[in-house]
Amino acid sequence: MSEQMTTDGEAAAPGPVDWDAQAAVFDDEPDHGLRDPQVRAAWAERLRGWLPDGPAEILDLGCGTGSLSLLAAEQGHRVTGVDLSANMVERARAKLAGRDAVFLVGDAAQPPVDGRRFDVVLVRHVLWALPDPARALRHWRALLRPAGRLVLVEGVWGTLTPVGIPTDRLLTLLAPLADHTRIEHLSEDARLWGREVDDERYAVVATV
């Protein structure tokens, strides 16, 4: 899922969000629905650089309506998506009907995957909103196969009351968990967001 925004473009402070109610309009945001061909192509290009070359098992946590899951499936990967919102999961299932993908209702911090291991744990705009990011990262690392990778898309949004997780904090949390980390700064690539942005947006690929 992504950050909540106020009417003046400021990122809203963390708080309860009725994601089931948001599901009907979630894809209206350019970087959620990926309906614009340029936005879709930009995310597909990034995923190719973040995900393994060959077919892999991808766990997409906080998958929302499944837009990134669909891109991963189109690139030949098998996807398991998890979201707390049943309505989001319903839309993801419809979006990937006929694809090699499974979607589950559950908590991204403790996904209901019954001890399965994955090649990649993919998480976009979720970690910052969790009550204990360090604990979530430790659990996600335990879900990876040897030489697996965490792909974490995060940022810091807003200027008056910024919310998010800065790059240096995330790298500190990952230090004891990953053998190698790579950062990609995403703010300057307006294609990803469907508009120019001036806040901090980035991805970290951490190999364990």
How would you describe what is shown here?
The chain is of the alpha/beta class. It has a single domain (19-199), classed as 3-Layer(aba) Sandwich (Rossmann fold). The chain is built from seven helices and eight strands, in the order αααβαβαββαββαββ. Strands 1, 2, 3, 4, 5, 6, 7 and 8 form an eight-stranded mixed sheet that branches. Helix 1 runs parallel beside helix 5. It is globular, with a radius of gyration of 16 Å. Pfam families: Methyltransf_11. This is Methyltransferase domain-containing protein. GO terms for molecular function: S-adenosylmethionine-dependent methyltransferase activity. Residues 59-152 form the Methyltransferase type domain.
Outline the secondary-structure elements.
Elements (H helix, E strand, L loop, with lengths): L18 H8 L3 H4 L3 H14 L6 E5 L5 H8 L3 E6 L2 H10 L5 E5 L12 E7 L8 H10 L1 E14 L5 E2 L2 H8 L5 E6 L14 E8 L1
Parallel strand pairs: 1-2, 1-4, 2-3, 4-5
Antiparallel strand pairs: 5-6, 5-8, 7-8
